[in-house]
Amino acid sequence: MQEHPIVLADANNFYASCEAVFHPEVAGKPLVVLSNNDGCVVSRSYEAKALGIANGTPWFTIRQEAAYDQVIARSSNYELYGSLSRRMMSIMSGFLPGQEVYSIDECFMHSPWDSERTRRIAAVMRRAVLQGVGIPVSIGIAPTKTLAKITNHWAKRHPSSHGITTWGNLSRDDQGTAVLSSIEIDDVWGIGRRLAKRLRGLGIRQAAQLRDQDPVNMRRRFSVQLERTILELRGIPCIADDNDATGGKRDCQILCSRMFGTPILGEEGLRQAASVYAQYACRRLQRQHSLCTRVSVFCASSPFSKHDQYSSVCGSILLQDPSDDPVIISSAARQALHGRITPSVRYVRVGVMLTGLVDAASYDTLPALGAQTDSGLSEAFEQVARRFGPAHVGIGFAGIRGDGRNNGDTGAAWAMRREMLSSRCTTRWDEMPVVRAD
DNA sequence: TCTGGGGTCCTAGGACCC
DNA sequence: TCTGGGGTCCTAGGACCC
After folding, report:
1. What's chain A's average pLDDT?
2. How many angstroms separate the CA atoms of A127 and A134, rounded?
3. Distance, CA of A429 to C1' of C3, in Å
4. A180-233 residue pLDDT tens
5. Which of A1, A21, A235, A277 is the most exposed place for a label (fewest CB within 10 A)?
6. Nearest protein residue to B11's C1' (by CA)?
């Protein structure tokens, strides 16, 4: 047994839990959080799960039944979730070293202690997050990331674990029989729908059976990833740490894409949307101090439409020099689709992808390499945004605002729908909660 | 009427070079 | 006319994750 275990902390029903933090009246009730455009269910409270609502269900197909069951629905409020996530991660980083924020609601940590001491620290950490942010987390402690995922899963499903399960504290028999034999193959980290189907075809149904396969043989038949998963299930760490200290820095690509509130017909509307999303992507590029060398844009019609045939196109522009200039990038995005779209197709999505990312710092020292960097326009936009709020200025449609609660978006007809948005309590002065002491 | 968004890694195959 | 073998780089696409 390895004595420096990996700790995985993962929030329970994160988005749904966030909605209850500043609205305690919804706690204990069935609540679902919907994706952008109020499309699909992406997070559910325990009570909503108990009603049999599955993740990914299109909201319009269950809306009436949900109303009957008094289910509360919320549009996704990423501003709130992001803010609570940062608080939660910050609290946890004070308890154990080597935090890797893996997603908005979970992080790995590397404990220098043995399993038992790690468990005691994790219990204190868990209470600190609950008290400091109001979000319940579950914790798995194990020698590898894949096993930490499995023990975390176990902790979530077994109330007797009080939110924490430690692999090293289980007997060898329990590890195999109670835990690995009860985990279905699709619940193993790294095994998706397709792979699970192929494995079941070979009679491999539970995690324990996968662990007992020959790794070399499975690598030949499937992939190097599957070999790693098998070794991880045996307690041999093979999944590299993503210890990029800059936090959230993207190495390969930055993508910004959205479904529209209403479909777009014709090139001009798509060009407007592409230009707006290019500016969002550009802001993220600048925040991580990168430049990009290629701007790609894709757009697609609805894959569900009964009237139109599905159609998708993409175009891409290679920049002359690496750049983070929103003028250059948004203009490339406008050009990328030129002449490619079909005028009669109703497009419902557009996305802008920035690739070929390079570190801006390497061009600071070698100006002769010729990067086209932003001359200060973005900084001016940021200053205006800080003083007057988001979306007051921008290039083209990005400078146009919608009305009311959605005024962070452009006022275009295709802007997303968010009809059930909760307050952005921690990021907007005018939406701060009011507390009365009677 | 109404079906999310943002990533990573790996592999195959083509282009190109010597 | 004939037309190998090995390497690298890039891109597209598939599969997976939350």
Report:
1. 89
2. 9
3. 74
4. 999 999 999 999 999 999 999 999 999 999 999 999 999 989 999 999 999 999
5. A1
6. A223
Is the CB of residue A307 inside 7 Å of nucleic acid strand B?
A: no
Q: Return the pLDDT at A203.
A: 95
Closest alpha carbon to A73 in A45, A44, A31: A31
Least confident of A24-33, A119-128, A273-282, A371-380: A371-380
| Alpha carbon distance A382, A384 (integer Å) | 5
**A398-422 pLDDT, tens digit each:** 666 555 555 456 667 788 788 899 9
Whether residue A158 has pLDDT greater than 60: yes
**What is A171-243's CATH topology?**
DNA polymerase; domain 1 (1.10.150)
- Residues 6 or more apart whose CB falls under 8 angstroms from that of A144 comprise A6, A232, A233, A235, A236, A237, A238, A239
Separation of alpha carbons A249 and A78, rounded Å:
18
Are β-strands A72-75 and A31-34 bridged in parallel, bridged antiparallel, or unpaired?
A: parallel
Protein CA A166 to sugar C1' C3 (Å) = 64
Q: Which amino acid is at A346?
A: R
CA of A327 to C1' of C12 (A): 28
pLDDT value of residue A378: 83
Residues constituting chain A: 438
The CATH classification of domain A1-169+403-438, taken from the options 3.40.50.720, 3.30.70.270, 3.30.450.40, 3.40.50.1000: 3.30.70.270
A92-96, Cβ contacts within 8 angstroms, sequence gap of 24 or more: A92/A9, A92/A125, A92/A128, A92/A129, A95/A121, A95/A122, A95/A124, A95/A125, A95/A128, A96/A7, A96/A121, A96/A122, A96/A125
Residue A357 CA to C15 C1' — how many Å?
23
Cα separation, A25 vs A243, in Å, equals 39
Domain with CATH 1.10.150.20 in chain A: 171-243
Closest nt to residue A190, judged CA to C1': C16
Asked whether residue A193, judged by its CB, lies under 7 Å from any atom of the DNA or RNA strand C, the reply is yes
Confidence of residue A394 (pLDDT cuts 50, 70, 90): confident
CA angle in degrees (0–180, nearest 5) for A111-A117-A123: 90
